[in-house]
């Protein structure tokens, strides 16, 4: 039986992980859960899975959770960044599922790797922000990192049994989101409610907006660069509206391998949890005979400049990807709150990147400092925009 620590238990990935744990109780046991402020759902998860320890976002959330669990709070309750890191390094865990959304997932994931825990990685920001340092730490600690994102899981599976020296390029697929065929003039008018209507996947708010802007695919390009040790310019993106082909690998001899499946996150999650084995019927099966067509096209970087900005940051390296991620997180929150428009997100990111002096970080502290710089800069740019200033 594999003992799991789940970082981000109340998010969409976390809920799917727990659904699989419930379906395969002989395979997995939860020893620790980390969530944000959704203590009501976390209470239910604690009652169901009986973890030894949990962590929440702050002391207020911890007090609320403790009151909900009274009179028998047998589970230890931690809180704050230190609580997340302590929980991530829990001694009894065999595998840590890193599914906290955004930059907040970096330090707990690093703490888990430093403790020698294998990682099922759903938090792409860990590698976007600190890819070189994180992968070196994983190698030094003998830690395996199994990708949870459907695209990276597809690449991971296609590379199995193949020599990485034989890879010509990898191709990440993207659905194109809800605005794939919307004209550029229309993109300026879209609302957060419209951007949340993803055609294929059910995800959290932030990643759904990133999918609509293609920033999610840009972040995945940077993640893939580190996860598979391949240069940015050998990573391509293709728009594939059906979300059936999750990604492809092209080899030097001209052969291309692809991984196909229905758009169901339980399938890549199950593979990461059970690797190198597979769980029987973890998700819905694809009936290839029912496929009417599979379409592919090049992304339109003029209509979706976030993808081009991510490639730029990835090529620049250093702290530039950390700033890209930080500014995007701030801009997405402002868009969701209705304070800026959809196309203001790439405008703010472009301006911030242009003013950042990138450097090669040697510590996680320096990466966090770059992240903080990006957030401050993004807030300044948002204020200028709201006052009608020219931010570019």
**With helices defined by DSSP (H or I, 4 residues minimum), what is the helix count?**
16
Task: Give the number of DSSP strands.
Answer: 11
Q: How are the strands of the largest sheet arranged?
A: 4-3-2-1-5-6-7
- What is the alpha-carbon Rg in Å? 20 Å
Q: Give the topology string: H per helix, E per strand.
A: EHEHEHEHEHEHEHEHHHHEEEHHHHH
Strand content: 5-15%
Q: Topology of this protein?
A:
Layout: E1 2-7, H1 12-23, E2 28-34, H2 39-49, E3 53-56, H3 59-69, E4 76-79, H4 80-88, E5 95-98, H5 106-114, E6 118-121, H6 125-141, E7 145-147, H7 150-159, E8 167-174, H8 184-187, H9 192-195, H10 205-213, H11 215-227, E9 235-239, E10 245-251, E11 256-260, H12 266-274, H13 305-316, H14 320-336, H15 344-354, H16 364-386
Parallel strand pairs: 1-2, 1-5, 2-3, 3-4, 5-6, 6-7, 8-9
Antiparallel strand pairs: 8-10, 10-11
Helix pairs in contact: 2-3, 4-5, 5-6, 6-11, 6-14, 10-14, 11-13, 13-15, 14-15, 14-16, 15-16
Overview features:
392 residues, alpha/beta, seven-stranded parallel β-sheet, four-stranded mixed β-sheet, globular
Describe this structure in words.
The protein is α/β, with parallel strands linked by helices. It contains 16 helices and eleven strands. It has helices at residues 12-23, 39-49, 59-69, 80-88, 106-114, 125-141, 150-159, 184-187, 192-195, 205-213, 215-227, 266-274, 305-316, 320-336, 344-354, 364-386; strands at residues 2-7, 28-34, 53-56, 76-79, 95-98, 118-121, 145-147, 167-174, 235-239, 245-251, 256-260. α4 (80-88) runs parallel beside α5 and α6 (125-141) packs across α14 (320-336). The termini are far apart. The model has no long low-confidence stretch (mean pLDDT 94).
């Amino acid at each position: 039986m594999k003992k799991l620590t789940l970082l981000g238990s109340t998010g969409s990935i976390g809920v799917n992980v727990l659904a699989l744990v419930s379906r395969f109780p002989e395979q997995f046991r939860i020893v620790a859960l980390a969530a944000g402020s959704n203590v009501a759902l976390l209470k239910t998860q604690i009652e169901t899975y009986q973890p030894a320890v949990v962590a929440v976002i702050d002391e207020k959330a911890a007090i609320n959770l403790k009151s909900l669990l009274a009179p028998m709070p047998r589970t230890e309750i931690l809180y704050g960044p230190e609580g997340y890191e302590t929980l991530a390094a829990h001694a009894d865990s065999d595998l840590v599922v890193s599914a906290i959304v955004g930059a907040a997932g970096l330090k707990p994931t690093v703490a888990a790797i430093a403790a020698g825990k294998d990682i099922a990685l759903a938090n792409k920001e860990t590698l976007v922000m600190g890819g070189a340092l994180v992968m070196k730490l994983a190698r030094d600690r003998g830690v395996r990192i199994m990708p949870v994102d459907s695209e990276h899981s597809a690449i991971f599976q296609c590379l199995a049994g193949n020599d990485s020296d034989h890879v010509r390029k990898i191709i990440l697929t993207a659905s194109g989101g809800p605005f794939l065929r919307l004209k550029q003039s229309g993109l300026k008018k879209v609302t957060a409610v419209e951007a949340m209507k993803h055609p294929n996947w059910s995800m959290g708010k932030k990643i759904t907006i990133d999918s609509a802007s293609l920033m999610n695919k840009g972040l995945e390009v940077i993640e893939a660069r580190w996860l598979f040790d391949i240069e940015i310019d050998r990573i391509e993106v293709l728009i594939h509206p059906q979300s059936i082909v999750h990604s492809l690998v092209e080899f030097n001899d001209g052969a291309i391998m692809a991984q196909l499946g229905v758009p169901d996150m339980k399938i890549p999650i199950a593979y990461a949890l059970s690797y190198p084995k597979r769980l029987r019927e973890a998700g819905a099966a694809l009936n290839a005979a029912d496929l009417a067509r599979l379409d592919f096209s090049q992304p339109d970087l003029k209509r979706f400049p976030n993808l081009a900005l991510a490639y730029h940051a990835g090529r620049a390296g250093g702290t530039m990807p950390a700033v890209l991620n930080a500014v995007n997180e701030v801009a997405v929150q402002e868009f969701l709150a209705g304070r800026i428009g959809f196309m203001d997100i790439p405008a703010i990111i472009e301006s911030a990147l242009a003013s950042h002096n990138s450097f090669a970080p040697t510590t996680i502290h320096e990466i966090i400092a770059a992240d903080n710089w990006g957030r401050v800069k993004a807030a300044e740019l948002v204020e200028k925009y709201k006052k009608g200033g020219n931010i570019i």
